[in-house]
Amino acid sequence: MTRGKSLAFLAAVAVVFMIATATAAEQVTTLAGMGKKLRIDKEQISVSGISSGGFMAHQFHVAHSANVRGAGIIAGGP
Predict the structure, then answer these.
(1) What does the pLDDT read at residue 21?
(2) Is the dihedral of CA 61, 65, 67, 72 positive or negative?
(3) What is the end-to-end Cα distance of the chain in Å, rounded?
(4) What dihedral do alpha carbons 4, 42, 45, 66 form, nearest 10°?
Protein backbone atom coordinates (compact mmCIF):
# COMPACT_ATOMS: atom_id res chain seq x y z
CA MET A 1 0.00 0.00 0.00
CA THR A 2 1.40 3.39 -0.95
CA ARG A 3 1.81 6.19 1.58
CA GLY A 4 -1.08 8.15 0.04
CA LYS A 5 -3.42 5.17 0.22
CA SER A 6 -2.34 4.46 3.80
CA LEU A 7 -3.11 8.03 4.84
CA ALA A 8 -6.48 7.93 3.07
CA PHE A 9 -7.31 4.65 4.82
CA LEU A 10 -6.33 6.05 8.23
CA ALA A 11 -8.42 9.18 7.59
CA ALA A 12 -11.42 7.01 6.67
CA VAL A 13 -10.99 4.90 9.83
CA ALA A 14 -10.78 8.07 11.94
CA VAL A 15 -13.97 9.45 10.38
CA VAL A 16 -15.83 6.16 10.94
CA PHE A 17 -14.67 6.08 14.58
CA MET A 18 -15.79 9.67 15.17
CA ILE A 19 -19.18 8.99 13.60
CA ALA A 20 -19.70 5.77 15.58
CA THR A 21 -19.03 7.49 18.92
CA ALA A 22 -20.82 10.82 18.36
CA THR A 23 -24.39 12.05 18.72
CA ALA A 24 -26.37 12.94 15.59
CA ALA A 25 -25.71 16.69 16.00
CA GLU A 26 -22.00 16.05 16.55
CA GLN A 27 -21.93 13.83 13.45
CA VAL A 28 -23.31 16.58 11.22
CA THR A 29 -20.82 19.11 12.58
CA THR A 30 -17.92 16.65 12.29
CA LEU A 31 -18.78 15.64 8.73
CA ALA A 32 -19.16 19.25 7.62
CA GLY A 33 -15.74 20.08 9.04
CA MET A 34 -14.12 16.92 7.64
CA GLY A 35 -15.55 17.69 4.21
CA LYS A 36 -13.72 21.00 4.15
CA LYS A 37 -10.47 19.55 5.49
CA LEU A 38 -10.47 16.62 3.05
CA ARG A 39 -11.64 18.81 0.13
CA ILE A 40 -14.62 16.57 -0.61
CA ASP A 41 -16.48 17.49 -3.79
CA LYS A 42 -20.09 17.97 -2.67
CA GLU A 43 -21.27 17.22 -6.23
CA GLN A 44 -19.80 13.70 -6.11
CA ILE A 45 -21.25 12.28 -2.87
CA SER A 46 -22.78 8.81 -3.06
CA VAL A 47 -23.83 6.13 -0.61
CA SER A 48 -23.64 2.35 -0.84
CA GLY A 49 -24.58 -0.69 1.19
CA ILE A 50 -24.64 -4.47 1.16
CA SER A 51 -27.59 -6.54 2.45
CA SER A 52 -29.35 -4.56 5.21
CA GLY A 53 -26.88 -1.74 4.52
CA GLY A 54 -28.49 -1.61 1.07
CA PHE A 55 -31.81 -0.76 2.72
CA MET A 56 -30.04 1.97 4.71
CA ALA A 57 -28.35 3.30 1.58
CA HIS A 58 -31.71 3.50 -0.17
CA GLN A 59 -33.37 5.32 2.74
CA PHE A 60 -30.41 7.70 3.06
CA HIS A 61 -30.51 8.46 -0.66
CA VAL A 62 -34.24 9.19 -0.54
CA ALA A 63 -33.96 11.31 2.61
CA HIS A 64 -30.97 13.27 1.32
CA SER A 65 -31.53 13.14 -2.43
CA ALA A 66 -30.70 16.83 -2.83
CA ASN A 67 -27.18 16.15 -1.54
CA VAL A 68 -26.47 12.59 -2.70
CA ARG A 69 -25.67 11.90 -6.35
CA GLY A 70 -26.40 8.17 -6.31
CA ALA A 71 -26.71 4.95 -4.35
CA GLY A 72 -25.01 1.61 -4.85
CA ILE A 73 -27.25 -1.11 -3.43
CA ILE A 74 -25.91 -4.67 -3.39
CA ALA A 75 -28.10 -7.60 -2.29
CA GLY A 76 -30.53 -5.26 -0.53
CA GLY A 77 -34.07 -4.15 -1.19
CA PRO A 78 -35.44 -0.91 -2.54
Answers:
(1) 66
(2) positive
(3) 36
(4) 170
